[in-house]
Structure formats: structure tokens, C-alpha cells
């Protein structure tokens, strides 16, 4: 028996991945296309079509620069990002261990994956677990979309017997580590939704499910583990972090931690300041104004931005930040 194959009757929905084979893709934010690398022509077309700026490298004239309206925290984050952009940053994958999981109707191996960012000291090492069937599903999906690029990428073959021996597990740990390294070296795959969802999708699904169920403490715990990893993976398009940051805002707010909610809201607004047409922009401003009022902070500039956007958008039903967030990662 192939050691990572569940017995009949086990649903993949109960696996660590929470993804069923052939299931429809998860619902993401409006910036789904940002996962793939855009050519200069596509970027120009996107900018013309949406009126938004892309997060691709810009000329100094158009790039974000520090200004007097920034808070101290925003300035600190700006200069931190500037320093990081000057370093060669990449992600390394290590698979140091694995464990055998036995359930009533299945037995399989889970591989521990440690993701580390190079180019600076990474105090937030990200740790996830995936099983053979997760890697197998990733490989199949990548072959469908990037067949030419995947042609020379080897994948560990299934074994009919011996899947739980120390020798086979060690062999697969090294093979999967090399496999992830090779995938990350292919730029179009590195920035693809397929690859990024393999690394954060299961945790995001669980976090949003807890959010929809009102389990804010558990949801927040998962989101706070995912955010550092997501930041490592989306350097090509930081705006993709906005929905996750906004979900953290909601969790903190509903747990009566307004100060933390405001801090994460500032991080999200920093990524949205060149994207006033983004669907999270106005709902986030509404939430930030409410939090600023509650914390005794100045909210005049936030109110002015909101009124400006409302004047351009015209009368329409206001969508709350929470209403947007609960729609993420829904099958």
C-alpha cells in the first residue's frame, strides 16, 4: 500500500490541507492577478483598466517617498522596506523532520517545512506541515499551468511498500526540500497562486473559517503565524497582504484590543495608499476612523480621504470590513 494514501472513506477535507482534489479555487481578493508575474505590457494594461498602480518596481519619480503626513510607525516601516529592497532577498526551504500520523482509516507521513528569508536576520521562521498527497497535488496543478517550466523538475515517486521506513522518509525529506528549492528558482512559479496557496492556503482556510464562526482567538492565532510567511512570499506584490491584515484588524477589534487593531490597520493602509480603488480601501478607512475615535487619535485626515472617495464613487451601499473578510477563502 502506498503509505501516504488514505483508506477508503477518509475525506481530504479532514486533512491538514483542507483542500479536496478537483475542488474549485478559493475566493481571493480583487488582486488575484497579482500572484502571477506581469509583463510590462500587462502591467500597463492593468493600470489603464483599473486606474491603480501596480506594485512592480517604479521609477524614483513615481515611487513612494516619505512625507510629513506619515506617522512615526509608517516612516519606520517605509525605511525598513527601503533597506530590505537593497538586499538580495530569497526564501530557503528546509525539511528537518517528519512524523507518522495514524488515524482510524488512514496512516500517512507529515513533513515539517521550515521557511526562512535570507538577506537579513529572520526572527520569524515559518513552520508548516504537508503530506505526500499535498505535494502530489501541487505538482499536478503546476504541470497543468507551467508544463514547459516543470519538464525537468523531478518529483519523488510513489512506493508500493516501505513508505514508513526511516530510509524512505529521509529520502523523501531531502527530495521534497530540493523540489521546493527548484520551484522557487522558477520565477513564474515562485509568484504563482498555485505555489503560494500550497504554502499558506490550508492555514488561511482554517483561519477564515474560524473568523466566520466567531472563534476570534483561534483565528487570530493562525493569522499571526501566517502573516510573516505571506510577507516572505509576496515581495513582488505587497498589496496581496491587505486582506490578511484586515482580517487581523477584525479579530483584534472583536476581542476588544483596539490598539492592536489600529496598528495592523495602519500597516494595511500603508499598502493601500496608492490604490484608492481597491475594494478594501473605503471599508478599512471606516474601521480606522472608528478605532481612532475610540483611542483618542486624530482621525481628520482619514475622514477627509473617506469623504473624497465617497464623492468620487457616488452613493452606494457601504460594505463593512467584516463583510468583506468573511468572503475570503470560501469555496
In short:
The protein is 50% helix and 9% strand. The protein has helices spanning 40-50, 72-85, 132-145, 147-150, 166-185, 187-190, 193-212, 216-233, 242-254, 258-272, 281-295, 300-313, 321-325, and strands spanning 91-102, 107-117, 126-131.
Walkthrough of the structure:
This protein has 331 residues and is mainly alpha-helical. The chain has helices at 40-50, 72-85, 132-145, 147-150, 166-185, 187-190, 193-212, 216-233, 242-254, 258-272, 281-295, 300-313, 321-325; strands spanning 91-102, 107-117, 126-131. A hairpin with an 8-residue loop joins strand 2 (107-117) and strand 3 (126-131). Helix 8 packs antiparallel against helix 9 and helix 9 (242-254) runs antiparallel to helix 10 (258-272).
Amino acid at each position: 500500500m502506498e503509505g501516504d494514501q488514505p483508506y477508503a472513506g477518509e475525506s481530504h477535507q479532514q486533512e491538514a490541507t483542507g483542500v479536496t482534489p478537483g475542488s474549485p479555487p478559493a475566493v481571493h481578493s480583487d488582486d488575484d492577478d497579482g500572484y502571477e508575474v506581469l509583463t510590462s505590457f500587462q502591467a500597463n494594461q492593468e493600470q489603464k483598466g483599473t486606474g491603480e498602480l501596480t506594485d512592480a518596481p517604479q521609477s524614483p519619480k513615481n515611487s513612494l517617498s516619505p512625507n510629513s503626513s506619515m506617522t512615526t510607525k509608517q516612516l519606520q516601516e517605509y525605511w525598513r522596506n527601503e533597506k530590505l529592497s537593497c538586499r538580495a532577498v530569497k526564501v530557503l526551504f528546509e525539511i528537518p523532520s517528519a512524523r507518522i500520523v495514524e488515524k482510524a482509516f488512514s496512516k500517512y507521513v507529515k513533513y515539517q517545512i521550515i521557511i526562512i528569508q535570507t538577506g537579513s536576520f529572520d526572527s520569524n521562521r515559518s513552520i508548516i506541515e504537508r503530506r505526500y498527497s499535498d505535494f502530489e497535488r501541487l505538482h499536478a496543478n503546476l504541470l497543468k499551468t507551467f508544463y514547459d517550466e516543470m519538464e525537468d523538475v523531478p518529483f519523488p515517486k510513489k512506493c508500493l511498500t516501505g513508505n514508513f521506513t526511516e530510509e524512505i522518509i529521509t529520502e523523501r525529506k531531502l527530495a521534497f526540500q530540493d523540489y521546493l528549492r527548484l520551484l522557487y528558482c522558477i520565477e513564474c512559479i515562485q509568484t504563482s497562486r498555485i505555489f503560494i496557496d500550497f504554502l499558506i492556503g490550508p492555514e488561511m482556510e482554517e483561519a477564515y473559517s474560524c473568523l466566520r464562526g466567531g472563534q476570534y482567538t483561534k483565528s487570530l492565532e493562525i493569522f499571526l503565524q501566517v502573516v510573516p510567511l505571506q510577507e516572505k512570499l509576496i515581495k513582488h506584490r505587497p498589496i496581496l497582504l491587505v486582506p490578511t491584515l484586515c482580517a487581523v484588524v477584525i479579530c483584534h477589534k472583536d476581542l476588544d484590543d483596539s490598539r492592536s487593531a489600529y496598528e495592523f490597520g495602519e500597516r494595511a493602509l500603508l499598502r493601500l495608499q496608492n490604490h484608492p480603488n481597491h475594494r478594501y480601501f473605503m471599508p478599512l478607512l471606516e474601521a480606522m476612523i472608528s478605532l481612532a475615535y475610540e483611542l483618542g487619535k486624530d482621525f481628520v485626515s482619514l475622514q477627509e480621504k473617506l469623504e473624497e472617495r465617497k464623492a468620487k464613487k457616488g452613493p452606494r451601499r457601504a460594505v463593512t470590513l467584516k463583510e468583506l473578510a468573511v468572503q475570503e477563502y470560501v469555496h
